[in-house]
Amino acid sequence: MVAAFVVRTINPFEKGHDVLFFIEYKPEWSFFELIPFVILGFLGGAFGYFFIKLNIKWCKFRKNKNIGKYPITEVILVTFLTASLGYLNEYTRMPMPELIRHLIGKCSIADDSIFVYLYFYLP
Fold this sequence. Notes:
It is built from 5 helices and no strands. It is mainly α.
């Protein structure tokens, strides 16, 4: 409560809101809009399950093979692979405030995003 009082008092964002990105939606939620969130929850749980299983298999593989004898090489390879794959995604190269603005902003046909194309142009 003290933190909320201090934020309201000093008004760091100079917009009259307590948060940097204030969202105000006029329309009410519809029931069918919750279906994608249920699917995301199911897929997230399944992904977590398979990730844990794959991690256990990878640890057993490392223990029995030569890669376990060179941990620094393994870390360098995993870092290079992660950086290479992350660079290909335009959203991981974007500054965080711009990414949040894209996520919470209203879409228009003029936006140049694959998600806008999927939303406006696919039947």
